Amino acid sequence: MTAIPGQAVPAAEQDLRDLFGQSVAVYATLAGPDHVVESANPAFHTAIGRDREAAGRPLAELLPDAIGRDVVAVLDRVHRSGAAATIRDLRVVLGAGAPAREAFFDLTVEPRRGGVQVIGVETTQIKHAQRLLTEQRILVEHIARQAPLAEVLDGMARSIESLVPEPVLVSVLLADPDGAHLRHGAAPSLPGFYNEAIDGIATGEGVGSCGTAAHRREPVIVTDIGTDPFWADFRELAERAGLAACWSTPILARDGSLLGTFALYHRRPRVPRDSDLALARVFTGTAALAIERHHIEQAEAAAEARAEAAREELAQALRAEHELRAEAERRAEAAAELAARLRSAAAAQEGVPHPERCQLGGPEGCDAGAEIKIADSWGDSAWGCPAHAEEAILNVRAVFIASAELGGLAAYLGR
């Protein structure tokens, strides 16, 4: 997509430009069988790690031995045969020391009178784009198949650490539901003691890079932990872990709520380039997608658990109701049977001489007629009205209706 002059570049496109840079064309003319540099554009000098002093020198002297042998072999073949050749994915290291970076070039070597010419383009940005898109596709596939959040975040962290040319350590912290604290999410290359120490740190102004970024809802770039006031409470911990810089970006949901933080740690003080910030923005968006998906899954699981609990509670209530109904029916049957026995006993004992009044009424007595004789296993017996006789049968152990008609113990012994 080409930007129209005077028109703002969309943020996503600008991130890709910052992340991958612009294509760089290289050109040089080389003379003779020794391939002496006659002329070259600045990009060629940069690619071989030299300045203008390269002119007038054989190319073999300007390249590292491992690279030079392969390149010179192609140059020799083109010079001898007069047929053009290509060199794919030539890897060189641009710069020296900490700022050095890995770069790749595709070169075409063509014959010319008295020598050869080299024309090429840097393909580093294409390789990085391919790797980034591949890693992102893998992460999105993991998210789509509902892989565990820890697995997705750990894979993302390792991908970033392998994508960038400079050593970097990635950390993802997850916000508590109230946004007041940050919990460990993923940090495969940070020491365990460091991850344990910052697990649960509060969000707030001046609480390291991540706590402050979460509080402000904006990136916080600390280029030197050793001097930055935000790290006053964590400086010794960072020193033990060998950390010197920390760039933290808040991970925000679509509604603006805090999901966590995404941090890039470095072993030496460092100021981020545009490509570093673009990388953080790209993968912060991926992390937001994974975390939001995880929250949705958690909410669905919680709702299903509540529904299952409600179903089980209803099932228990129905079982209890069924048991109560069954018990009520059993009691009703027992009561009906007892009432029938009482009526039968009363009818059988109607003509048997017995006290006129109920003997089971207790201290207050009972004026009702004595209709039923009851007894216990110890040989004690008494006459009572149907109500008190039923009460005694239900509440006194081993009490039974004493009736010659029912058979009694004699009938039991002769069974």
CATH superfamily membership of the largest domain: GAF domain
Low-confidence stretches: 1-9, 408-415
> How many angstroms separate the termini?
106 Å
How much β-strand is present in the residues?
15-25%
Helix segment tally: 12
User: What quaternary form is this?
Assistant: single chain
Major beta sheet, specifics? 6 strands, antiparallel
Widest sheet: strand order?
8-7-6-11-10-9
Rg (CA only)? 46 Å
Give the count of structural domains. 3
CATH topology of the largest domain: Beta-Lactamase
Mean pLDDT: 82
The count of strands amounts to 14
Reported CATH architecture of the largest domain? 2-Layer Sandwich
Structural category: alpha+beta
Fraction of helical residues: 40-55%
Succession of helices and strands: HEEHHHEEEHHEEHEHEHEEHEEHEH
- The gross shape turns out to be rod-shaped
Domain GAF: 148-301
Protein name: GAF domain-containing protein
Coiled coil: 293-345
Pfam families: GAF_2
Describe, in short, the structure shown.
By secondary structure, this protein is α+β, with helices and mostly antiparallel strands. The protein has helices spanning 11-20, 42-47, 59-62, 65-81, 124-144, 149-163, 192-198, 208-216, 235-241, 274-348, 386-395, 408-413; strands at 25-31, 36-40, 85-94, 101-112, 115-122, 169-175, 181-186, 201-202, 220-222, 245-252, 258-266, 372-375, 381-384, 400-401. It folds into three domains: 21-122, 2-Layer Sandwich (Beta-Lactamase); 127-300, Beta-Lactamase (2-Layer Sandwich), CATH 3.30.450.40; 349-413, no CATH class.
